[in-house]
Amino acid sequence: MINIIRIIFLILLISSFEIYSQISPGDLSKAHAKLEGLSNCTNCHQLGEKVEKSKCLNCHVELKNLINKGRGYHSSNEIKNKECWDCHSEHHGRNFKIIRFDKNNYDHIKTGYELKGKHKETDCEKCHTSKNISDSKLKKRKFTFLGLEQNCLSCHVDYHQKTLGSDCSSCHGFNSFKPAVNFDHTKSKFNLTGKHKDTECIKCHTKEKKNGKDFQTFKGINFSSCLSCHKDVHNGKFGNDCTKCHNTNSFHDINKSSFDHNKTIFPLLGKHIQVECSTCHKTNLTAKLKHQNCSDCHSDYHKTEFANHKNKGECSVCHTVEGFTPSLFTLEEHQKTKFPLTGKHLALPCSNCHLKNEIWTFDKQGNNCIDCHENIHKTELKEKYLINNNCALCHGVEGWNIVTFEHKLTGFALLGKHAAKNCIDCHVKQDYDGKKIVFESVDKKCEGCHKDIHIGQFSENGVTVCEKCHTFDNWKPEKFNHDKTRFNLSGAHSKLECNSCHKPAEKNGIIFINYKLADFKCAFCHTSY
Fold it and tell me: Does residue 484 sit in the same domain as residue 414?
């Protein structure tokens, strides 16, 4: 009987294996291997139906909890309407990868947590590690991307030891912990103003050891008064309220609304208002200072130049407390000096004459042209035209271009067109150093200014005397008389145009009109019949 039972059991076992082999499309992956067999099919499959998503989530509770909370990748718009088997297909064999995940190209924002700053550069495994997972079941897994919280302290150590709350991003950015780019001191109980803005944090927020760890104090700092941080250099003489005189811009920036210098024997006016207290009160703010004269504080900039004047060099004669410039010395005052201002001198700034080599001079200032103006003519003008460098012999104070000079004194009277010419047409020379005004070196011969278009045809002893033919009124040869040449014009010749006989010629590459004919024989011009 026992043997019969064994045979029946063996037959049933073999037949059930054959039935299952016929139903199953293939082996399950390693992760689901424990669900092999006919008795386990309904764990995932509804009889006669497809795989139920709800059945998957009955096993994968950690995903079900995230989906119910609307968190994680499986709650994203891309996944939440899909069936599990759309991405995680089964029955492809033990070694089939049921999860295919390319972490290098994965868009982390789909999880509901966007990677920013340094998080973008961090390897996945540095965050997705068991030490950062609080769920005890997930913590036991060899590796999982599940189980992380989205608050900073789930991964990072709380340096502030619960003194500043858990919202790290309210102060820190994702690129680095230092500096705390999101922290706004104006929203704290102590708004930073003036020099406090430039002060290093560590000077107020000191470091210490707390619970055996490095710790920097940010809360509980006493700032009820200035004396909480600053030493009273006045030793209580002016009370404890520093803000009556000082502000946060600088200790030396005295609050003028509190201290009224005008109640003293020396009211502050003009530029004196802007002067730092220490400029005058060098050692003791309460010490009495000598102040009857400007020279009690100010050095004599003019170095005793006005010491012999009737006012003994007192600054207030020319200057005011509003500033050293402009001076009270007016144009009317200048007209009373040895050098009244006229012409262009009226428009010049004082510095043009009175400031030389960065030194102001007044009484020692010369009154001659050469004292201010350079003789630009140098050797180009003889002494007889510039006696003692006196520019006024030719120029007036109305301007350098207004010249009063009798040109015939030079032996070269300006006649005809010359009289209408500007001086610079003849007296400005261009060389490699630039333009120069010349007089003595000007060539008085016509060729000194004019080009000899006749190419030396009328030159005598190396000089072309243009006046023999031309006048100063125009270039027409009004003085030329052909009868005084070697060929007297008579008969039909007198009616001919000049160019009938005088043709263009070329010499050294230059085209000119040939007036000096080589031969006057008739045959030279006329063709014989």
Answer: no
Nearest to 111 by CA among 122, 121, 103: 103
Indicate if 91 and 42 belong to the same structural domain.
yes
CA distance 183 to 28: 54
> Is 276 inside a domain boundary?
no
Residue 452's H or E segment, with its range, is none
Query: Residue 77: helix, strand or coil by DSSP?
Result: coil
Residue 13 reports pLDDT greater than 60: no
What domain range is 471 assigned to? Answer: 454-525
Sign for the pseudo-dihedral over CA of 378, 383, 388, 392: negative
**463 strand-pairing partners:** 460
CA 295, CA 194: separation in Å to the nearest integer? 36
- 3-state secondary structure labels for all residues of 206-268: CEEEECCEEEECCCCCCCCCHHHCCCCCCCCCCCCCHHHCCECCECCCCCCCCCCHHHCCCCC
Q: What average pLDDT does this structure show over 490-506?
A: 90
The DSSP secondary structure of 494-520, one letter per residue, reads: GGS-GGGT--EEEETTEEEE--S-S--
> pLDDT tens digits, residue range 224-257?
899 989 998 877 766 788 888 788 888 877 776 6
pLDDT tens per residue across span 353-403: 888 888 888 877 788 888 888 888 888 888 888 888 888 888 889 888 888
Q: Report the domain count for the chain.
A: 3
Cβ atoms < 10 Å from Cβ of 160: 17
Question: Quick count: other Cβ atoms within 10 Å of Cβ 297?
Answer: 13
Do 433 and 498 share a structural domain?
Answer: no
Distance CA 450, CA 474 (A): 13
pLDDT of amino acid 19:
53
pTM of the full structure:
0.43
